[in-house]
Design a protein that fits this description.
The chain is of the alpha/beta class and about 280 residues long. The chain has helices spanning about 10-15, 30-40, 60-65, 80-90, 125-135, 155-160, 170-180, 215-230, 235-240, 245-250, 265-279, and strands at about 30, 50-55, 70-75, 95-100, 115-120, 145-150, 180-185, 190-195, 200-205. About 35% of the residues lie in helices and about 20% in strands. The radius of gyration is 21 Å and the shape is elongated.
Length: about 280
């Protein structure tokens, strides 16, 4: 079943000789019904601009447009994909703009109109870096209202992890401090070409109006990074250089100095960051 009048994705890939490149972290989604389902996880797109990173041959792009996105801005680093994306642009006049650029080096905000949603099957090699940037702007709320992003399932689990689990760490704290995050879909390797060695998952993150608990972002990030860099150590040891008299500051934040990072929830990490910042 097709979602539009354009050719099936396998045919598009064959016509334009778009063999996925490992160096670009490419794994193409082939099922257009599946890409439409992913687009629906972002909510009602009819009143939103959508930023898509790494569209490749355009499977998710077509899903976003078919689901009624007001406008899609697609950022694609691989020049080989531009002719295939141009065909989609012609089929949806005025609704798709394509930029040939590296998403890590581009600020697309001046080309988007709020409200803005980011929806992407992120290339594996830049996914976590982009998420970290989107969650760490100098000012909050951010330019986006929601993120609907494909990751390796292991990374997705790290984003939604809770204290006490092996997956819990810096990424969970960063994501959950300023957003509501949940896994909305999982996908098997065979949904992609080429098939990766791992399962994938789609995470939907909704920006909160303000952070869940008060904290100075850079201080919180530094404290959390230091705590989890040596996650098997007691916090009085792993945070030894974070501030003078760290044991007393841990106790003031309601944290046992002998606890380990994975045992501490977001609220207490924020409290500790505030105490260290004040000192």
């Amino acid at each position: 079943m097709s979602i539009d009048a354009l050719p099936p994705l396998r045919q598009v890939i064959q016509t334009h000789e778009l063999n996925a490149r490992k160096s670009l972290g490419q794994n193409f989604l082939l099922d257009l019904n599946l890409t439409s389902k992913i687009a629906r996880q972002a909510g009602d797109l009819s009143g939103s601009d959508v930023l898509e990173i790494g569209p490749g041959p355009g499977g998710l792009t077509r899903g976003l447009l078919a689901e009624g996105a007001r406008r899609v801005l697609a950022v694609e680093k691989d020049e080989r994909c531009l002719p295939a994306l141009a065909e989609i642009e012609a089929a949806y006049p005025g609704q798709l703009a394509v930029i040939n650029a590296d998403a890590l080096e581009l600020d697309p905000r001046d080309q988007l109109t709020a409200p803005i949603r980011i929806v992407a099957n992120l290339p594996y090699n830049v996914g976590t870096e982009l998420l970290t940037r989107w969650l760490s702007p100098p000012e909050w709320p951010p330019f986006w209202s929601s993120l609907t992003l494909m990751f390796q399932k292991e990374v997705a689990q790290r984003i939604v992890a809770q204290p006490g689990s092996k997956a819990y760490g810096r990424l969970a704290l960063l994501a959950q401090w300023r957003s509501d995050a949940r896994i909305v879909m999982t996908l098997p390797p065979e949904a992609f070409q080429p098939a990766p060695k791992v399962h994938s998952a789609v995470v939907h993150l909704t920006a909160l109006p303000e952070p869940r608990f008060p904290a100075h972002g850079p201080t919180l990030s530094r404290v959390v990074a230091q705590a989890f860099n040596q996650r098997r150590k007691m916090l009085r040891a792993s945070l030894k250089g974070a501030a003078p008299e760290i044991e007393s500051k841990l106790k003031e934040a309601g944290i046992s100095p002998t606890a380990r990072a994975e045992e501490i929830d977001l609220e207490r990490f924020c409290a500790l960051a505030q105490i260290i910042r004040a000192a």
